[in-house]
Amino acid sequence: MNETTRYLQSVADPPGVEMAVLVNYLLIDAIKAGASDIHIEPWESTLVVRVRLNGVLQELVHLPLDMMEKISGRLKVMANLVSYQIDLPQEGHAATPPELGGVELRISIFPTVRGEKIVVRIFDPSNRSFDLAQLGFEAEVLEALVKLLARPSGLILLTGPTGSGKTTAMYAALTHLVQRHGVAISISTVEDPVEFNLPMVSQAQINPAKEFSYPVALRSLMRQDPQVIMVGEIRDPETAGIAVQAGLTGHLVMSTIHSGSTAGVFARLINMQIEPFLLASSINGVLGLRLIRKNCGFCTQPYQPEPALLRLVPPAMIEEASFRHGVGCQECVDTGYAGRTAVTELLTVDEVVRDAILQKLPTRTLQEVAIRQGMKTLWQQGLRRIAAGHTSLEEILRVVAADQV
Description:
The protein is an alpha/beta fold.
């Protein structure tokens, strides 16, 4: 039983529930479980509280609907938001007291037809590691990425869905550069928002309301004599153009871009009116990232996946692999999984790939060229994780799109 349920059962009369205490218990339960987000949402007959554990939402508790305004009011006070405003979105930050672990909260409130939906993002400074070696990258990918980071100029792009670890990977790369070069390197970032304050890195947060956008920030930043520039996200042709030019003019640039696949990044940038010869000259590598849940070490055991799923696995691997999954226990909150690790796909731009980009080859063909040049796909890396017993076949299929299998 969680602390929130225990507290609610200890209060005989529902009106006697203290909102400050209830919200604290919700936060305690989420932090103790290692959740990244808390979702508080009015459904038809209840106010449901769910937490995101290892990337997957799970129910924590159902509360009476009439508590919604009071919980919302309490969180608004914590984040210094306008408590009486209920028909417009609001966002704010709050710091928790030491007894709650001193974690940082990012509170987002959004009006729906049933009332306000609240999402609380939890940042635990004590739990943030920006060590490249600790991210779970495959050994050969880590080695190749470190080589790319050693280059004095060019563009390194990261792609993957929201919440796939792109920002953490970029922060770890910047930390690696700081540790390697110390005070001899000048690093600047432009982000939306700044997720974490990094030592010895000049970080800026864009503010569209004051017309401080990515292009405005980057243009100004080019006059700040940076050696390494991190751009939170390439969203538009203008940002893409400046980032590519920066990579060509002696800066090492890192950024993220949304694309269906690693090889698809080039088509996305060509659609943003960036010439293929500029992409071929400036981009050093593209890193595709996904986060997978690891089997719980306490309850993992051998199992046989469904025949329909096994058809996707190479026959040679089926004969050799010992498929394992977690059955669920108290340690993993009955999920069968504990913690997450990365599965990666690193497309390094060499002469052969460069020629393919210049020829504007279709994404599928470009991917085949990269594979011939030694790139291991997300699916291949996922199969290696399954064979090693790190995770289940179902989990890899959950995070790797069917068209990539």
